[in-house]
Amino acid sequence: MLSQAVKDKKENVTKRKKDKNREVLIIGCGGIGSYLIPLLDKTRLYKLTVFDPDTVELKNVTYQNFEENEVGENKAKTLRDRYYSISEAQPYPILSQKQMEGYDLVVCCADNLDVRKTLYTTKNIAWLDLRAQGRNAAMISFQENPDIYNEKLAGPSGSFSCQGNDWDGSTSSQHFSHIVAGGMGAEWIHRFFAEDDNWKSKFIGI
């Protein structure tokens, strides 16, 4: 259930100025997306639609932006109840370009390559791809040279953890590069909508 405070904030969305209606689709709200969303929400500038079929697991609580009392709940709907900038939360995967149409920007924070392959082949859609695995993170945008797409899309199909394949599940071996990816993404998105000519970054890796 939505808290009264969140309901009140959602009602205030209609009072925002026209230039604040920046419609963004966020695909995936786990390791990266759960930290990206509150950064965008704080600005009160964005209208967010979030898709994620996953539910919160206990292991997620140690490195994703969720609490123990949210275990078993859908990630997208959980964040919708927390952040008023989320106008729509869907517990489904993104499977086609048609689902990505109609937004000012599409941001991929998902943990698999299949959705990225769909994203990279879309036409007339501005997109940003945020990634993290272990101690590494990367940010790739639609401005990148298409000649390198095959390199960026190489790898096995299926899901992978932003903690990397070698993570033993302990907090002592935990990585935080996914939070860095969320911060880089928020910066890029903000500059993108501001049409900042000094922010022309296409691919950034750490």
General description of the model:
There is one protein chain. With 206 residues, the protein is an alpha/beta fold. It has a single domain (18-205), classed as 3-Layer(aba) Sandwich (Rossmann fold). The protein has helices at 4-12, 33-43, 75-80, 113-120, 149-152, 177-193, and strands at residues 22-27, 46-51, 86-90, 105-108, 127-133, 136-141, 203-205. It has a 7-stranded mixed β-sheet with strand order 3-2-1-4-5-6-7, sandwiched between helices. Strand 4, helix 4 (113-120) and strand 5 form a beta-alpha-beta unit. Helix 2 (33-43) packs parallel to helix 6. The chain is globular and about 40 Å long.
What's this model, at a glance?
By secondary structure, the chain is of the alpha/beta class. It has six helices and seven strands; from the N terminus they run H-E-H-E-H-E-E-H-E-E-H-H-E. Helix 3 links the parallel strand 2 (46-51) and strand 3 (86-90).
Approximate helicity band: 25-40%
Count of individual domains: 1
Radius of gyration: 16 Å
Strand order of the largest sheet: 3-2-1-4-5-6-7
Shape: globular
Which helices and strands, and how do they pair?
Layout: H1 4-12, E1 22-27, H2 33-43, E2 46-51, H3 75-80, E3 86-90, E4 105-108, H4 113-120, E5 127-133, E6 136-141, H5 149-152, H6 177-193, E7 203-205
Helix pairs in contact: 2-6
What distinguishing features does this structure have?
206 residues, alpha/beta, Rossmann fold, seven-stranded mixed beta sheet, 6 helices, 27% helix
